[in-house]
Amino acid sequence: LIYAGCFASFGYNKKTLCHNLEIIINYAQLNQDLDKSLIEIEKPQIEIVNEFSKDELMAQELEVFGFYFSVHPTTKYKGQYNNIIDLLNIPNYFNKDVTTIVYIDSIKVIKTKKGEDMAFVLGSDELSKIDITLFPKTYNLYKEIKKGDILLVMGRVERRLATYQLIAQKIEVLL
Question: What is the predicted pLDDT for the residue at 39?
Fold first, then answer.
């Protein structure tokens, strides 16, 4: 509940609440069955600590909600590059080369008929998701990529049935 922001109205940051959680729970348990007219337990002293880092807060949001609620990990990188295409706009670039920034949600490595490794990557940004295909030649150059990485991907937009995908040609790992 703390990570979900349910206690924001108390005026303490999430890390302070986590840091003091034990004394807060103890105070609540001691107070729950007491007759307030007979006895009053002194409120605990809350030790204020600095908030979690932005990366920690984003990881907590993903853990609690299953998606990024306030800011996506790719957001801070988009302003550093020119001509970055948001994934929501990918259909406008059918059969064209684009550059985009994605967070790797998942990777599936398979063997081709020739026994070579290739990969299917599910990438996301603040607005959408896209399937990225790394054929064997490209995958061999970038096989160190992993779930949670942020990538600058240059590739060609193609369509498979009703779904747009990106055929990766060049990748740069940003994080």
Answer: 67
